[in-house]
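Pilot study result, target chain (103 residues):
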Amino acid sequence: MANAPGNPYTAEMFFCPALIQGFAALGTNSAAGTIVHEMSHLVLATADHVYGMKSCTELADDKKITNADNFKYYCELFQLATLKTLPALADSYDLKHSPPKAA
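Predicted structure:
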């Protein structure tokens, strides 16, 4: 598929066996996170300003929102959170943006 003028990204992704077989499915530095990283290039035209969790936190805010690894770590860390730490996702969420009431 040819690239649009000025767009270095293609609408194609290829997954090598090492990604699927050699990475954990979930957690940090996972296969799922790698796919999110690559999809952010495709969908959001992100860049690779830096790699690694610590480096991502040290970026200036305008770079954080355009860095592929920031999207990767956001998704990886979000799936590790529990409903206790994210009360808005609990079944008892009352639509008022407050923690669920204790039983």
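One observation from the pilot: The chain has five helices and no strands. A full batch analysis is planned for the follow-on phase.
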